[in-house]
Structure formats: structure tokens, C-alpha cells
From TrEMBL, chains A, B:
This is Sodium/hydrogen exchanger. Residues 1-30 form the signal peptide. It comes from Cynoglossus semilaevis (Tongue sole). The chain crosses the membrane at residues 61-78, 90-107, 169-186, 198-224, 313-340, 352-381, 402-423, 429-448, 494-515. The lineage of its organism: Eukaryota, Metazoa, Chordata, Craniata, Vertebrata. It is found in: Cell membrane; Recycling endosome membrane. GO terms for molecular function: potassium:proton antiporter activity; sodium:proton antiporter activity. GO terms for biological process: regulation of intracellular pH; sodium ion import across plasma membrane.
Length: 685, 685
């Protein structure tokens, strides 16, 4: 024991040492660059300046990499000792804060006099600017508009400005892997079981929350105007925008603990599903609000036409992104379907293709004017549903690991940047009244989302969402990466700056306090932990009535979809599912033969339908297949698509067996169930 | 058979269809963006312009992603049908060329009138520019200097300029993973067996090649001046620079075929080792040549001091980068060594740490003014040697797969960009005389590297480098990613533009002609194929004298190093190798106890020393371990580090068994050897 302790102590010491070393390294790097910068002021050679700038950029990026490294090392210690009060994202923020303080106060920033302000009487601001400095032409690219007051600061704070990333980096580089991973790892079984509720929370709830927060903040702003606490414009659209960005929840901290403690799977599914979808809703909602532009000079009056236009834009962008994401997902499935023979030997190519197709979804959506993040989300869901089945087992592992790693790095990068930016951002506007108002509004907005909707949903659900679940969902409404990315995207006006500062505080508070208090809250609400998803399953299976009621709740929503998917889409897009010849009416025989892959016939005996992470046991496979064959035999060569007897049971079975726990952070592995269902005999094709 | 053919035909059709679709998609995207751009010209809103620019960027990137996707799909078909005449990189170039032609000639580029040229009588070109357009401040960042003649073109070719990446992208984003992967996958056994020759080719050979090419090109340039074929300045330093950049070989195409055909391992090791190291030499050499700046006005005269300074810079930068790379590699090894207990459960963290540490090596080197690429190379070698042993088997797979994927994507991106840039680059200078001269010079430079050095090396080697091997090495001197990245880095002057255009042609020629002709060349030179690395091994083992001679050739070079590494470094940095208590003299007992991990004692029975990709069979482990224990027992608790009897045999065995084929492109798996060496009994610790 003593030896173990001393080993742990040694590790802690090593860690502290590393922390000091890497901090001092980053500071040294900054200092050197500065000194070199001072020496440079005399030279006017452009190339050297560009080199210097590159060196500085490297140093800045190095700071973040070291931050991430430190975070990872500390997480190890935490995980090793089972600390649960602070999640890795919270930790990343703390390290970010420390480095931010050092950059802000610890380092003397010399005045860089080489900035020049030019005055031109032209009325346009071109994207590319050619400047003729005494006969030599230099090319400049537009970075953005800055306010006049800011203009004089630019020269002063070169260093702090350097460490500030282009906000678009978050949207175009860091968010996509996070969102894709979320979509890719959506737990299908529990997700579908609670789909109605999840959609209600995500769509209706987010809109409610957005408008409640918007109204409350408008009240707050009006009050502030009365007592002269407001130094700039703050319109109703700004309030609504604020409502939209803080309505995106990100309970990754909470879910990690849920996963570890094995909390009730339905609660998990509700929270995860809601947070994944409401990110998409919030991002489209906020862009629609920005697009609300009434005609005429005063762009902040109410106008029905503009509102309708905004609403139409919301629908258009959302459905466009959705369609695009699903379409590219299906294209990938088709490609992998076509090349499956070739696939088997070249997993590298397979993974690369998967990665590229996902990324091109994002780019295509952005290029078409849709929202890339939303497209990527639905692409991820589609890929998990179809393409995943066509990948070889090695590639399934590879792609999962790749996206897991990208997600992990991107998430921790964003959170440590959040910590850093609290001190390095130049234009913070901390208004105590606004901040208090925002906290109250966020709380009430969340309440207005969860409680009324849960009440309404419980009217329809037989498997009620209990009040302690509701409290937990209320409590788990953390704000995270998406909220931050949306708020930092535009910090040009006074209103936006105030929003950004307030949003930062909301994120800090929710991640540290709500995230840290999850374990306490769970025990306080008497939510049982240590529930094995499969135990839970078999239990509800034995309690026949409850099981059936759960089924009833969700089945009507997507029975048609399920039948269509299982009978037509899966056979066309994947090598699992029944052969089309069995599902299409006999008149379509030749077409069915053409579309069905030879493998589907070959594989008939060992049909795969593994939408889960785990490869299903043979028993499960034959079971799923059994249904189809029975109906095939009974109905003479084809299953009637609508036949409620077979497909509904089939669906029920898939909900129960067809899917397994998806392990989010790689700590738990759920084994396939072990209840004894009779195996159906395999017919000859 | 007929069915198989029709299936293949269907696949080909699908592929062609996909090609057409994706090309038309990318063109459509471009067209739409253009149209939108035209509509936009009336509006002057900056934000919308920025959005437009973002959309255009997405479309540009999408073109490349689709290119990569197409390449991957076609590679599949090629691999599937065992086409060997065209490598994936060659294919990527062809697709790039096609898209380049379309962009250049197929798309009407509207004149973008929104560019403004400002004239200022200031003598500096600041990195950040604030422009006051009628009261509003806009921030611009410096992109670079452009020539006056170019200035008028800027407006015309916005579209083509858009598709042109910042050259630094290649150096800072795409090259590092390629180089790291090369270092990480250096075949240790064959590399060390031929280390002397490899170092000679890489260092001496590259310098010889650089100067030979430089001289020849200077002659060519002088001749061109005589016949008035030269439209600008071209100094001797430019010629040397050209020599340096085209001296970096990249035989990835050839090696892929070698790997597939199982060509002689020594030839493989010579070519691979040389190409990995000469990249590093070429990049430092070229930057030293650029830094050659004699005092006074005329910066192109010969001056001893400047030459010495350049030479000193070469040594300084190279050794600095080397030291930095090795240092961070060792730090990573130490970290993974310290946290190995915690590691086991969290492979995600392990992979993430590994990735971040490798990247921070690059950034740290760049921030310190060293060459990041060189640092990353040696970091990769160090990591493969030490850190790899501390990773859990799952993490070993994960990291290898991750870097493999990054390498694959980066390489194909660079090659398809090469194809594209032949048509989209704005300032090509194709000078037939210079091009012919360059081809001759490159050929002669390579010859002056290989043949004289091989002759000299053969004087010392008993296992001669035969003449057919020399011809093959001569033939395999392809130019690739590094040459391209170095030449595109600076295309400001006339000389550099001519170099860039010529370099492109050299890369195309060598990759297509030399790469495509590898199989023919192999059979023409009667180089035996289908040699199993291990067969080869056991054969040479049975031919005792030859085996011993090979050993003699390399052993003197690094016997001391090997002993030091095996007895001290490995035990300190990894959990493999003998415990320090066994290797340090008895007086250092307490220190040895402190530094040795408890695991080293625990693991004593099953000592791992797997520097290879494959997990060694138990027999191998006990064999390697056997040596150490025998000497431990014989010499009473410690092995004398210099004892030639034990360590040299140990070394010999490690050279023979301790390492296995590293599979580069995942097509071949070499099994552990199967010759019957008696197993040593395992002693109790």
C-alpha cells in the first residue's frame, strides 16, 4: 500500500514537473519570439517578417498542444483514481484559464509600431487588396471589420491578438468531427424507443427555450436601459439570437458520468438524443434569426413578411442540410456496397474513403449555402445505419477509433480555448445585470422546455418520464462547444460582445458546477445506478405489459419507415437485410434480382444486421432472419410489406436485440444478452 | 467467369459514373459560386463578401476531397486487378491534371472588379494593415509580395488564384505526417545492417548530387545567356538551390512495388533509408543555400565567410533539429513509461498523447527556428525505438493506423495538387533549354551520387552492392512530395518560377516513367523477386561466412551505441530490456533499483523487445532474453557492457530475429520465422 502511494506520489510529482516545464517552455517561446520581434523592427524585409509571423504562429499553436497534452496526462491520473467531480473538459478549461492569465498579465507586450493605418475614400472593402508601397506591390487579404475604438488597440495587443484564432476555425474544423461523432454514435435502440420524446425536446423544446430566453432577456435589456446600464444598442433580434445560442445543450460531461455509473438507459437516450439534435436546431435557428431583415432603414421592427422569410429559411436550411447529409451518407453506402469485394484487403482505403466522404458532406453543404454541421450530423447517423454494415470489421474499428480521437481532441481544444479566451479576448463586456438576467433566463428557459413538454409527453407515454428524470434533465442542461462556437462567431457589435462574455460564464458555471455535481444530483434524486442495459432489457421483457407499452409509444411514429427501411433500403444499400427477391412483390422479380447483390443470396444463411458496435451472436442473426423467412414461406416468395404480424414483431425484436450499447469513452463493454429465445431453423434459399 | 467479368464491368461503370458526377458537381459548385459572385458585385456588405469567400473556399476544398475520393476508388480497382504500371500517386496526378485543365479552360472567369490597388508612399509593408474606408476600419493581413506585372493579373484570375493554396500549407500541414510516418516505419533491422551505406548515400551523396546539379545548371544558364534565352536573373546560388531541391528522392512508388513483389530486403533498406534521410538533408541544405548572403551590395559573389556561415548554419540547424526530435521522442517515452499502469485502460488517451507529442515536436522546432520536418523525422525514429514498446498492443495498432492514414491522405493530396497546379499556377516559365538541361543534370547528379559512392562503399563492404542494385537505385531516384514542397515555397522571382515549372515536369516524368517501369526494370536487371525477408535471413544464416561478413560491415559502426542503448537506455525508457540492476556495475545498485521500473523485474521472465510491428513469438523473446541471463549468471549479477562475447552475439541475434518486415501499404504480412533454435529455459527472477 505504502509502495503504491509513493508510486502515485511520484507520478503526481512528474506531472507537476511536466506542467511547470511545459508552461515555462511556452512562455520562453513567447518571450524569445518577442525579443526577436523587437530586433526585427529595424529590418524591413518582408520575407523575414513573414517567417517571424510563422514562427510566432507555431509558438501559439504549441501552447495549445501543450495544454492538451497536460490535460490528457491529468485526465489519466483522474481516471486512474476515479475522480468524478471534474470532467476532462472542465480540466481543459482550468488549464486554459491559467495560461490565459499568464499571457495577459505575465508577459510584457512591446508596442509593435509597424502597423499602419491607411485612409482611403473608397466606398468598398475588397476581399483582396493590393498596396503599392513605393513601387512594390503587396497583396493583403481581408480579415474583417473592426470598430474605430478597436483600431487603436490593434497595435498594442499584437501578442494577445495572435493567440486568438479565427472564429471560423471552430465552425469549419473543430465542430464537424464532434458533431459527426455524436451522430455516428447515437444509440439506435434506445434512441428509437424514445424518438417521439427526443424529437419533441429537441425541436419544440429548443424553440420554446429560445423564445423564453429571448423574451426574458429583452425585459432585462429594457430594464437596463431604464437604469442606464446599457452602453450600446441591444435589439430584440439580439435577444432572440442569444436565446438560440444558449439553447444548445452539450451534456458530454454528464453523459460520461452516466456511462461510467451505468445510469438508466432511457434517461441517457433522452439526454443524448436531445443534445445531439438541439445543436442542429440551435445553429439553424440562430442563422435564421440573423437573417431576419425587415425592409427599410430600421431593421429591428417587427414585420410579418420578414418573419415568414426567416421561418422559411429555417425550414429550407434545415431540410436542405438534412437531405444533403442523408444523401451523401447513402452515396457512401452505395460505394462501399459496390466495392465490398475489393474492400476486404485494403482497410486503409476504406477508412480514408469514409473520412473523405464525411468531410465532403460538410464542404458540399457549406458550398451550397446550407449548414455543414447539420449535414454532417445526419450524414453520421446515416453512415452508422447503412455504411457501417458494409465495412469490414477492422475498418469498423478503425473508423470508430479515428472519429473518437478527432472528437476527443477537438472537444478538449475548444474547452481549453474557452478558458484561455476569458483573459485574452480583447473586447469583453461584463455587465453584472445582464449576466444575472442571463443566468435566470437560461434556468427558466430550460425549465420551460423540460417540465411542460414532459407533462405533455407523459400524457401519451405509458412508460412515464418520472419527475426525478425531469429534474435530472433540467440539471444536465450544460452549455458547451456549440454555444461557444456560435457566440464567438461574431463579436463585432457591443451586443454581441456582451453576449459572448456572458456565454463564457454560463459555460464555465454549468460545466464546473452542474457537471461536477452530477454524482450528487443522481443520488439526491434517487436515480438508480449500475443498471446494465441488457438486464434492464430482459427485465422489461419479462414485464410484458410495460415492454409492450414502450413499444406502442414509439412504433406508430416510424412503423412505415421501419418497414420500408428493412425491406427495401437495407437490402439495396447494405449486404445485410433480406434479399430483395423476398421482399419485393413477385412482379418485380428481375429488378429485384438485378439490385440484390450476389452476397445477399450467399449470405442468406448468415444474415448480418449489426447496427451496433458489437458483432451480433449467431443466434441473434438467425433470429432476425427467421422472421423474414417465415413470412417468406408463408406468403409464397415475398413478405407483404405492411403485414403487421411479422414486421411489427420483427421491429420489436430489433428494438430489443438488434442493437447494443455503444461505448462512448471506451470504458465499458456490454455483452450480448443471454436470454433463451428459440432459434429458428435456417431454410435453404 | 463471365459473371465475374460482368461484375467487374459494372464496377467500372459505377466508377466512371461517379467520376463524371463528382467532376460535374465540382464544376457546378464552381459555376454557382461564380454566378453568385457576379450577383454579389453590386452589394458592398463586407459580411456577405466574407461569407461568399468562405463558400468559395469550401467549394475549392471540396474539389480536392472529391479528387482524393476518386483516386481512392480507382486505386481499389487497380489493386484488385493487380495493375502495377501506375501507382496511386501517379493516378492522383492524372486526376489533378484533368481538373486543372477544366478549371483553366472550361470555366469562364468573370472579371472581378472589386479589387482595389492603393498607392502609399510608406517604406514598410506591415503584417497587419488597417484601412479606413470612409470611416469604417477594415483589417487586412499580408499575403505576400507580388511583382508589378502580376499585379494587373490579380483581378483577372481570382478563380485560379483561389484554388492555389498557401505554399506553407505543404510544409506545415501535409509534409509532417508523411515524414513522421517514414521515420516511424523505418525498418530497423535492415536499416542498421546497412547503416553505413545509407548514411553515405544520404549525406555525402545528396551533397554531391546537389553540387553536381548546381554546376551543370550554372553551365546551362551561362549558355542560355549566350544565346539570349534567359529573360531574368539566374545566379549561381539559384543553381545550387535547384540542385538541393531536386536531390531529395521519394521512391514511394517504387517501394510499394518492391513491397508487393518482395524484392531483396537489402535493396529495399538502402533505397528507403536513403530517401528518408536525404529529404532531411535536402531541406536543411536548401535553407542554408538561401541563407548564403555575402556582405555588400552584390549578394551573388563568392565569399569564404558567407560560405562558412552557411555551412555552420547547415550543421547548426541539422543537429538542432536532430537533438530536438530525439529529445521529444525521449520525453514521450518517459511519459509513457511513467504512466504505463494508467495507460492500459485508456487507449484513446494514449493515442492522443502520442499524436500531440509528435505534432508539438514539429511546432517546437519551427518556433525555435529549426526545421520541423527534420525534427519530426528523428522524433518518429526515436518513438518507434522506445515509446512504441511502452504502448499497449491496441495503442500500437491505433497509432500505426492513424499515422498510416494521415500519410496516405497527405501524400495523395500533394500529388493531386501537383497535377492541378500544372495548369492553374499563374506564373509558369517553361524554358525548353533549361528543362532539357535540368533533366540531364538530374540524371548525371544521381549517377554521381550512386556509382562512385557504391564503388567506395564496396571497398569496405564484403556483402557488395552489386551493379544491378546500383542501376536499380539509379533508376529509382524519383522526385516527389518534398521536392515539390521545396520548390513551391517561394515562386517570387523569375529564377524560382522557372525552377518550379521544371521541377513539376521532373516529378511527373520520374513518377510516371520511372515509377511505372519498375517491374520491367526489375526483370531487366535480373533482380530476384519473391524473396521472403525471413527466408533470406535463414539462408544467410546457414551461409555462415556471408552472414558474419554482413555483421562485420555494420557492427563496428554502432557497437558502442548498441551496447549503451540495450543496457542503459532501453531499461530506463521502456519496460523492455534487461533490468538495470543486471547491466549497471554493482556499485550503482541503489540507483539502478530506483531507476528500474518494478515491471522490469516482474517482466523479467517474459522480456519484450519488440521493435517490430509484429508481436514476437514467445520463442524469440526467451531467446533474446536468454543471452542476457546467461551473461548475468556467468558474470555474477551484471553483464559487462563491453563483453564482446555476449553482446555481440546478442546484437547479431537481434539483427537477425529482433525485427520483422514492416508492411508499408498493408498488403503483405510476413510471418515470424520458423527455424529451430533451441529455446533457453527461463530463469526465475
Amino acid at each position: 500500500m505504502a509502495r503504491k502511494c509513493s508510486a502515485a506520489w511520484r507520478k503526481t510529482k512528474t506531472l507537476l514537473l511536466l506542467l511547470l516545464v511545459s508552461l515555462s517552455v511556452s512562455i520562453c517561446v513567447c518571450k524569445t519570439s518577442e525579443e526577436q520581434m523587437e530586433n526585427m523592427e529595424n529590418t524591413i524585409v518582408t520575407e523575414k517578417k513573414a517567417e517571424e509571423s510563422h514562427r510566432q504562429d507555431s509558438a501559439d499553436l504549441l501552447i495549445f498542444i501543450l495544454l492538451l497534452t497536460l490535460t490528457i496526462l491529468t485526465i489519466w491520473l483522474f481516471k486512474h483514481r476515479r475522480f468524478r467531480f471534474l470532467h476532462e473538459t472542465g480540466l481543459a478549461m482550468i488549464y486554459g484559464l491559467i495560461v490565459g492569465v499568464i499571457l495577459r498579465y505575465g508577459i510584457h507586450v512591446p508596442r509593435d509600431v509597424s502597423n499602419v493605418t491607411l485612409s482611403c475614400q473608397v466606398n468598398v472593402s475588397p476581399a483582396t487588396l493590393l498596396v503599392n508601397f513605393s513601387g512594390k506591390f503587396y497583396e493583403y487579404t481581408l480579415k474583417g471589420e473592426i470598430s474605430a475604438s478597436e483600431a487603436k488597440d490593434v497595435a498594442d495587443n499584437e501578442m494577445l491578438r495572435k493567440v486568438t484564432f479565427d472564429p471560423e476555425v471552430f465552425f469549419n474544423i473543430l465542430l464537424p468531427p464532434i458533431i459527426f461523432h455524436a451522430g455516428y454514435s447515437l444509440k439506435r435502440r434506445h434512441f428509437f424507443r424514445n424518438m417521439g420524446s427526443i424529437l419533441a425536446y429537441a425541436f419544440l423544446g429548443t424553440v420554446i427555450s429560445c423564445f423564453v430566453i429571448g423574451m426574458l432577456m429583452y425585459g432585462c435589456v429594457v430594464l437596463m436601459k431604464q437604469v442606464s446600464q446599457l452602453d450600446g444598442d441591444f435589439f430584440f433580434t439580439d435577444c432572440l439570437f442569444f436565446g438560440a445560442i444558449v439553447s444548445a445543450t452539450d451534456p458530454v460531461t454528464v453523459l460520461a458520468i452516466f456511462n461510467e455509473l451505468q445510469v438508466d438507459v432511457d434517461l441517457y437516450a433522452l439526454l443524448f438524443g436531445e443534445s445531439v439534435l438541439n445543436d442542429a436546431v440551435a445553429v439553424v435557428l440562430s442563422s435564421s434569426i440573423v437573417a431576419y431583415q425587415p425592409a427599410g432603414d430600421n431593421s429591428h421592427t417587427f414585420e410579418v413578411m420578414a418573419l415568414l422569410k426567416s421561418f422559411g429559411m429555417f425550414l429550407g436550411v434545415f431540410s436542405g442540410s438534412f437531405a444533403l447529409g442523408v444523401a451523401t451518407g447513402i452515396v457512401t453506402a452505395l460505394i462501399s456496397f459496390t466495392f465490398i469485394h475489393v474492400f476486404l484487403d485494403f482497410q486503409l482505403l476504406e477508412t480514408a474513403l469514409f473520412f473523405l466522404m464525411s468531410w465532403s458532406t460538410f464542404l458540399l453543404a457549406e458550398a451550397c449555402g446550407f449548414t455543414g454541421v447539420v449535414a454532417v450530423l445526419f450524414c453520421g447517423i446515416t453512415q452508422a445505419h447503412y455504411t457501417y454494415n458494409n465495412l469490414s470489421p477492422e475498418s469498423q474499428d478503425r473508423t470508430k477509433q479515428l472519429f473518437e480521437l478527432l472528437d476527443f481532441l477537438a472537444e478538449n481544444f475548444i474547452f481549453s480555448y474557452m478558458g484561455l479566451t476569458l483573459f485574452t479576448f480583447q473586447n469583453h463586456v461584463f455587465n453584472p445585470m445582464f449576466i444575472v438576467g442571463a443566468f435566470v433566463a437560461v434556468f427558466l428557459g430550460r425549465a420551460a422546455n423540460i417540465y411542460p413538454l414532459s407533462f405533455l409527453l407523459n400524457l401519451g407515454r405509458r412508460n412515464k418520464i418520472r419527475s426525478n428524470f425531469q429534474h435530472m434533465m433540467m440539471f444536465a442542461g450544460l452549455r458547451g462547444a456549440m454555444t461557444f462556437a456560435l457566440s464567438i462567431r461574431d463579436t463585432a457589435t457591443y451586443a454581441r460582445q456582451m453576449m459572448f462574455s456572458t456565454t463564457l460564464l454560463i459555460v464555465f458555471f454549468t460545466v464546473w458546477i452542474c457537471g461536477g455535481g452530477t454524482t450528487q444530483m443522481l443520488s439526491c434524486q434517487h436515480i438508480r445506478v449500475g443498471v446494465d442495459a441488457d438486464q434492464d432489457n430482459s427485465m422489461s421483457f419479462s414485464e410484458g405489459s410495460e415492454r409492450r407499452s414502450t413499444k406502442q409509444e414509439s412504433v406508430w411514429l416510424f412503423r412505415i419507415w421501419y418497414n420500408f427501411d428493412h425491406n427495401y433500403l437495407k437490402p439495396i444499400l447494405t449486404h445485410s437485410g433480406p434479399p430483395l427477391t423476398a421482399t419485393l412483390p413477385p412482379c418485380c422479380g428481375p429488378l429485384a434480382h438485378f439490385l440484390t447483390s450476389p452476397q445477399a443470396f450467399e449470405n442468406e444463411g448468415e444474415l448480418k444486421d449489426d447496427d451496433s458496435d458489437l458483432i451480433l451472436s449467431d443466434r441473434d442473426l438467425s433470429l432476425t432472419y427467421g422472421d423474414v423467412t417465415i413470412s417468406t414461406d408463408a406468403l409464397g416468395g415475398h413478405t407483404t410489406a405492411g403485414a403487421p404480424g411479422s414486421t411489427s414483431e420483427d421491429l420489436d425484436r430489433e428494438l430489443t436485440y438488434g442493437d447494443h450499447e455503444l461505448v462512448m469513452r471506451g470504458t465499458r463493454l456490454v455483452l450480448p444478452m443471454d436470454d433463451s429465445e428459440p432459434t429458428f431453423s435456417r431454410p435453404s434459399p
